[in-house]
Amino acid sequence: MRFTYGIVIAIAILLSTLRPAFANDPRPVTVADLAWMAGVWKGEVWGGVGEEQWAKPAGDSMIGMFSFVKDGKPVFYEFLSLEKREEGVVMHLRHFHPRLVAWEEKDSPLLFVARSHSKNEVVFEGLDSAATRVKIIYRLEAPDQLAAIIEKVKDGKESKDVVRYRRVTGN
């Protein structure tokens, strides 16, 4: 019994040392807080390869792009921006088919606001539709590993996609 109690205490101590990296920060998120997202990231997803790139913060904003390639051919692209606005840090996201044919209407990018953050994580929640709820979570799992988690609830059905990226160096 004493041995088991010691293991429980050891696990509790270990977990308490890991928690600070993902504990919510009570301060409002700033674009500068998200500098850890900057870089080129590549990972397998949906039977193909996704590549996401984020520029370093500049002027209270960050610019990003995503490309998805399957069977050696481009399937779609995303262009993203993070900007400081009245309601906090907002992500503007727009999808494109190859040849840059937009999915969304001209004046209607998808909007997500940063609702919570920590040292290594940010949670964006969609602002566009009550019928479809979307969260995009970015989590730096190690210096060279980024997870992008897309959680969606549409018509009462939940879905979750996880993209595990590795940092690309030498580009």
Describe the structure.
With 171 residues, this protein is mostly beta strands. It has one helix spanning 2-18; strands at residues 39-45, 48-54, 61-70, 73-85, 88-97, 101-102, 110-118, 121-126, 132-142, 145-154, 157-167. Strands 1-2-3-4-5-7-8-9-10-11 form a ten-stranded antiparallel beta barrel. A hairpin with a 2-residue loop joins strand 9 (132-142) and strand 10 (145-154). The radius of gyration is 18 Å and the shape is globular.
CATH topology: Lipocalin
Number of helices: 1
CATH superfamily: Calycin beta-barrel core domain
CATH class value? Mainly Beta
List segments where confidence is low: pLDDT < 50 over at least 5 consecutive residues.
Answer: 3-22
Task: Give the terminus-to-terminus CA distance.
Answer: 55 Å
Strand content: over 45%
> Can you give the mean pLDDT?
86
Keywords:
171 residues; mainly beta; 56% strand; globular
Could you outline the blueprint of secondary structure elements for this entry?
Blueprint: H1 2-18, E1 39-45, E2 48-54, E3 61-70, E4 73-85, E5 88-97, E6 101-102, E7 110-118, E8 121-126, E9 132-142, E10 145-154, E11 157-167
Antiparallel strand pairs: 1-2, 1-11, 2-3, 3-4, 4-5, 5-6, 5-7, 7-8, 8-9, 9-10, 10-11
Quick summary:
The protein is mainly beta. It is built from one helix and eleven strands; from the N terminus they run H-E-E-E-E-E-E-E-E-E-E-E.
